Amino acid sequence: MAKMHHHRLRYEKSGLAVYISHLDTMACFQRAFLRAGLEIWQTEGFNRHAYVSIALPLPVGFSSRCEVMEFDLESDLPLEEVPGRLNAVLPEGIRVLECYPARDPFGLLKVLDWEILLEYDHGVPDGVESAFGEMLGQEHLVVRKKSKKAKCGYTEVDLIPLVQKWSLTREGEQALRLNCRLAAQNPGLNPQLLFEAFSAHAPALAPDFVRFCRTEAWREDGMRFR
Hints:
10 strands
């Protein structure tokens, strides 16, 4: 019988660490537990390795302040000691914020808050806010999304039901900050799709560069995912 995993880390990923892939991030934590002298449960079989599982893969290039990783600590070490020991051996840009007993199955993680910075080399053009609102004010906004399961290589998804709320604010003369709450899974919405749709909807108003950051994870009932 598979062993239950009772502990979780909440960690942030920023700086150059955003270019560490999902699989490499898990390997990084496996090595960090070993270096920190923390005994965690290992998988069974010939090639055993320390078990870690991340709730939702973070796309390469995206930062986050709310990543959740699951593991099972074998010793009776107080959980409040775990962040400090891991942070002493983790690479720059990955920092554990807290360690706590797991509460919610991963399937209960339903929505994510995002903080997205839209940058314009020559200043924010007039009309971006109204064009964005016009796009999301439509009854449907169907886009193509890559899919390995579909024979044609893509599937169609309606973005409107996946955007719960959003707001745009000016950040100086050359940037806008978008705060939004998006569906996390089954189906989830990668915010990159929003800006591909916006570029198609208003090409002259598309940003020159976009930075994405996850800020919080929620359950469907509005409680913070733990």
